[in-house]
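Try it yourself: sequence plus S-adenosylmethionine, in.
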Amino acid sequence: MTLGEVRSYLKELALEPIKSLGQNFLHDQNLARWMVSELSLDCRDHVVELGPGLGALTEYLVQAGVGRLTVVEKDGRLASALVRRLGNSFHVIQADAARVDLLGLYGFGRVEVIGNLPYYATSSILMRFLDRLSPATRLIFAVQRELAHRLVAVPHTREYGEMAVYIQHRWKIRFLRNLPPSVFYPKPKVDSAIILFTPRKVIPFCDEVLFERIVHRGFSERRKQLRKLLGNTNGVWEKFSAERKISPLARAEELSPTDYAELVFRLSPFHPQTVAAHVEEFDVVDFQNRVVTRSPCLKVHAKGLPHRSVHILIQNRAGKWFLQKRSLWKDSNPGKWDSSVAGHLRAGEGYETAARRELREELGITECNWLGKKGSLQASSETGWEFIEVFYTQQEGPFTLMPMETDTGAFFEEGTIRRWVQREPELFSPTFLQCFDLVVNNH
Ligand code: SAM
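Structure, out:
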């Protein structure tokens, strides 16, 4: 829409832009087209537009012929006007983008997010859509320029802070271009910028709950030395700072996101356990699932020796199924979606004992009165040479996810899961669907 069209359309709708909702409408069509083209969309994508307003970006998204387009607009007047103007080839959610149900966005293809965001809500919208539970795989946003500089900031600068560390830990952020106030109506008082987020391919290994706590503590008193804020680390800080050539008197702003991850890894109480898990022993079995010997976990996996594991599917009273996304640092199927709980039997352990231990270790479930066995899968290359027993139980959550085991997890509708597995099978562990079918069909 040109400036003239924006003005006359607002007049026709008898609408005044609402300042408190950050309603500054983009009227530079070249910019709108360019922003959409930066996503290189195709017909398999599910595009989610946040704050479509009068549809400056939406019209190009409709033309791009994507698999599915969902728009999230808080102002009901604009949401209805958008459908009247552009038809109903897209899905409209009238909601606050900072609180929208992320789970409802799964299962329609790779999620690409775009938006010329309202300034007042940018941080909360970013935190929601960059969270571990977000389905977003790439995001492009117009935001206030000052915030864009803070997001891409590097250590030792005034702009570098808590938000940059959190987000840069998992996301690569590119500052694409500046936007002057003159491309919006009404003109905002400040400059804007367009930024692009893509997931980091390699994320440093650490307990991310502790990571967030330590970063928060560090920046809670920016002027104070980090070692004082950390308290007694039993020499970890001194050794870490010496090895990484960081001043022992450094402040929070002197450490990069990778430094924080490394520091947290060394401080993590999970560290010894993680190391122990790698020297854990499994029973090695023959093709009749009879124990023949025991062997360290790493050897079992490296040599593809048959062994045993459990999968557990948890359903809640509403009939939804809890799926977990495996930790990014698991040795098998890292970052894949999987059964509620999945794990190996340790040497000498029975299937049900292992199932109860895994419930405790992965989701913090200590009370589980009823655990029903639903079937088993024979060892094959598809199961990673595991003889799997599949269990079912009912639990309501919320669960305490163990940071080194599980990246994230949530209760999903069966329909969402089926659609999702069909569209993006590569996002699931290879045995998930068979385990899920065993439970659902024997229900
Ligand atoms: N995308 C349009 C454009 O580029 O012209 C409008 C951008 S305008 C800066 C921000 C839009 O976000 C407005 O339509 C406003 O109503 C909407 N909005 C404000 N707060 C919102 C929120 N919390 N959730 C979703 N939309 C919101």
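One thing you can check immediately is this: The mean pLDDT is 94.
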